[in-house]
Amino acid sequence: MPACDIFCKVIDNFGDAGIAWRLARSLSLEYGWSVRLIIDLPSTLAQMVPEVDPSRRSQTASGIQVVLWDETFDGAPHTAADVVIEAFSCFLPERYEAAIAARAGGSLPCRVFALDYLTAEDYAADMHGLNSPHPRYGYPKTFFFPGFTEKTGGIIRERDLAQRQQVFAAADGRQEFLRNLGADPSHPFSLFFFTYPTTPVRSLAKSFAEDSRPIQLLLAPGAASDTLSEELQRLGAPPHVRTVRCPMLPQKDFDKILWSSDAALVRGEDSVVRAQLAGTPLLWTLYPQSEQTHLTKMHAFEKLYGARFAEQGARACWQQLELGLNSGDLSPAAWSAWRDHMHENRAAAQAWRKHLFGLEPQTSRLVRACA
Length: 371
Description:
The chain is α/β, with parallel strands linked by helices. The protein is 46% helix and 17% strand. The chain folds into two domains: 3-156; 161-353, Glycogen Phosphorylase B (Rossmann fold, 3-Layer(aba) Sandwich). Strand 10, helix 9 (223-234) and strand 11 (241-245) form a beta-alpha-beta unit. Helix 1 (14-31) crosses helix 2, helix 8 (201-210) crosses helix 14 and helix 13 packs antiparallel against helix 14. The protein is globular and about 70 Å long. It starts with a strand and ends with a helix.
């Protein structure tokens, strides 16, 4: 079976490390590949994968070799793996590139992929699968663009995911899971809350306070949750708003909090993909970029996901709330209007989930590209 090296430099905190680890696990468990993850911040990975010891330079966790990517690694001699994945536009060490070039001239050259960020923008389909020669060594590198259509690289979806969700539901796993978090399993509306500090959190707290319908907030660790809690206290701790401070969940348990929630407000590529695969009504806060270019990415996704709404009024309310969350200009009325359409939101989320389960998974496409 092939040996694969995945290189990851953490920029978007949990999202980068989460995607790299999920891909590594999928290649190892589902296809039997020997996978090594070379990452510059194993401490970030360790928060999602408790088996990882952030103090060690090299270790094996859950069948994956995890190696610290630092200057010592850059300066060491290398042998290139059969498949090399540059995650999120990171640049490989010069000595490793030379090792790839050495294999390129032999009978068993390695395959090199540039794995990009997930997007619904048209360029993902246009550029996916294209090759580019290395400027110095000339070996080809294939662009791999995750996306939401068959013309892209797809998303990571494990073979047994639907079955695991069905088993969780059949065993009423939601009750036990929420109780273990300190949440109320019988609460009429639970929202999983995991976003960036740059999201208009104070305006969102005001929205929760002014809408009199009960809400249970499952707060992921982080600065945004701290700000939300502080603002709710400043607003008089509205009695219809219940907050639950959740621990940092291992990646293997992350799906369970989405399966247990009535809606999810999430950030980061891995989190948003898992929310979509859960069929949970979705609010996506994108990584903020200069000149509001992340709004272009948001609008591209809206065209695809929004088409699953059967009722245009519900779609418009979802889009308005998405815009407010991602532009920083959020009104309480936008939250209330979105919540007015929860039946339609759930139907759209389920329709989108069905679409995603109909696509060939990302790992399968990657393996097929190497065949």
